[in-house]
Structures
1.
Amino acid sequence: MTITDNDEHICTVVCDEGDVNWRVQKETKIIKCRGEISGARPGDKVPCELGATFKWSQLLQFMSNSSDPIAPYEILTDNGVNFTSWDDGIYCLKWEFAVSSPDGVASNGEKITFSKVYLESLDCKEGDEANTLTFSGKSLDEKPVIIRLT
């Protein structure tokens, strides 16, 4: 999984364990005539919801002019370094997931890209077995771009 800002800062998270989920929604406007339902039409576009949970070892590790990698917490919260947004109105990042195919499937997997993703909540948990981050946010696009890897 990679999370990038608009200025070549890249946070790479290698996930053996973790979850990603998203929701694509369509708004529908119900048309009524004198209180009776007479039809429906497409409504406004709805942002795609994105959620992810993954393990972490350090919250802060990247410094300006440093060779240390960027920690997910740092880039998600715009902490410490001047990360740049993919949107002018709200701090947005690009998320890319490379998903491997199970054994016996002909393709090499898929790449799922969410553009202009903004943070709604970030839950941090320190645990006995693992430390986890749970991200919840939305993309300014209606759905992700999915390509098959060959």
2.
Amino acid sequence: MKRSRRIAFELLGPAFIAVFLYLSLLFIVSRDLIVVKGFFMFLVFGYVLSAIPSVVFTVLMEFAFARGLEGRSWRAVALASGLGALSGVAIALTFARGFDNGRGSFTLFPVLGFITGAIVGLMIFVFSKKGPNQALQHNDPSCHAPCVRTCRASRGRG
């Protein structure tokens, strides 16, 4: 997955996935098609509500990728799940007036955020190729910094 596509998915994917999961749950519970008819309204509301958490999620994920985290690692999935849960907590705090769980929103949104983050992490995992942190494929020490370290470490190994 190219970096630009990954960033677009990290920004736009969580709200769509969370709204889809939330409406699916509502439809299963209520068995009413009015939930399906309100999909676009919920989607707009989801993007408005999750704009700041999505930006923070994207910035933190890209910071981790820049520091060497590979998209095809389970650590990336775990990080995305954890950040999703934290985003859910942030969204729940806007609804639940602190940690009051009167309407169940403080329980629902962190779980929904965790599942959404896990799905986003799994999508990145599935569609990512092996990153630039692979083993050295050549012996040109002028390539870039990670290759130089690997070249220097492997010189004495014959």
3.
Amino acid sequence: MVLVSDKTSHSEEGRGVEIGRRSGETILLFTPDDEQVRETTRKHFGVSNFCDIIIFYKSSLGSPIVFFVELKGTDIGHAITQIESTVTAMMRRCTQLKSSSRLVAIIVSTASSPALIKVAQKRLSNTYQVTLYQRTLHKGAVSLREFV
């Protein structure tokens, strides 16, 4: 997993997420699915799928938030698999994560599938207390401020 120093945004194929750093905030952006470390990350966590970005966010005013982000074209089913696999792997390795942080998963894609998203929302919420959102976007970036 690669920590991207001082970066507060990430995009692929014209779609992305951003959260500009403000005073009193700590933002750590990791790219577990980065080509350079993909195989090492998969072996370390024992999974074959990872989401594109994990962002740890903490302000001086509130509880930490962990964002699991998948940037996808039209394959919503695969995006859900990547999110669920990452969340499962992180929960196994970081057992305090669920009790110490708010967990948010976001799929940014060019297509939507409300039925698939609804099933995944229920499963992630019941199993890990993760709130899943899906945003349809062809170009540009979703602001994570919406979820802070």
